[in-house]
Design goal:
Layout: H1 10-19, E1 27-35, H2 39-44, E2 54-55, E3 62-67, E4 77-85, E5 91-98, H3 100-112, E6 118-120, H4 125-138, E7 143-155, H5 158-164, E8 170-179, H6 181-191, E9 193-205, E10 211-220, E11 224-227, H7 234-253, E12 269-272, H8 281-292, E13 297-303, E14 308-314, E15 320-327, E16 330-335, H9 341-354, E17 359-362
Antiparallel strand pairs: 1-5, 1-6, 1-11, 2-3, 3-4, 4-5, 7-8, 7-9, 9-10, 10-11, 12-16, 12-17, 13-14, 14-15, 15-16
Helix pairs in contact: 4-7
Amino acid sequence: MRLPKDIESEEQLYAWLRGLADLNGEHIWTYLLFSRAPLETWLEDPRGTLSLAKREPYRFPVFSLSRRPVGLHGRQLSGWFAMIPAGHSRIYKLVTVASREYWHRIILPFVRGGYPRLAPIYLMQRELQDGLKALSDALPPNHRINLVRASSKERITARSRTTQGSRRRYRSNVTYTQEALETAFQLAHERGQWFRSLTVDVEKVTPEGIVAVVSGFTLSKDGWTAWDSLRGRLDVSLERVLVDRTSERLNLFRNRGLVTRNYAPDVPLAIEFEVAVFDDRRVLRSFGALMFKYPRSTKALLHQNPYYHMSLSDQGDGSAFDLWVLSPRRVLVVPRLRASEPALSRLVNYIVENFRDARVSNYVANE
């Protein structure tokens, strides 16, 4: 869907988006992104990530982007996107109206190509739950949210692996359901699952008990949301919580490298699991094998018994870390000379997505 030429501000953009009645099979997409520099510097840099897209003549940053993806027999996909400040330092929101094909084949590869100067903001399980709860609490009377589809990863128990004759420790699930969100997150916790994306309907229940779907959306842990409609400003409460929570986490990752701190010491970051996962030495070996698969990095295993110690360097921007497992329920991340927010975010997301859900904080001794 084309963006009208008479839109002159971000406010007018959102007024237009909220008034859209028929998207013709497309969706309103929003994507939370972190920029290592203010957006103005991207606009002025002819070699920057945004230079791959064409700046359009609007009074706020709007770009057009066309590509001929592999597998489409030369067919070109074209569209536009806007970059809008999200209310916190260096956090922006990419906004567009587009088909799923354009989103997955054009926009997502475009953003991935911008790393490390432009990076997605990954969402933790608790952040997904907090954002959806805020949306539920903000709904008008007689409205509710209902989970209709969940894409998740699940840890396979040792007994199941023996029965199935498989060496896989995790499996992906897609579930179609009709569950309350609180129930869905509780069941996921009990089953050792963590969500990759959630598709939710916003429903209105009449006094006669008739249920009508007001809007629907899909929320991904990679930081993007696909909306069927923005009527009723349903996105506001959800987005506010997601931006606030991720801003807190990014602040935790800020100024971690020794160079940026003038070599002043700092406490490590702790990735904490709810249970003592490393009591089983097989799980520790599995974690070590997983970290050797960490993409776009160089690794060196320094020790793995009785404790685990790996040195890791991000090939994107030279960030480097030491990973230590000295506790059965904790991974310590010790930044070295350079440690950027995008590199730390990518590392934590890789562990949470491929190993198990966790929380990240400053290390506190004797916890």
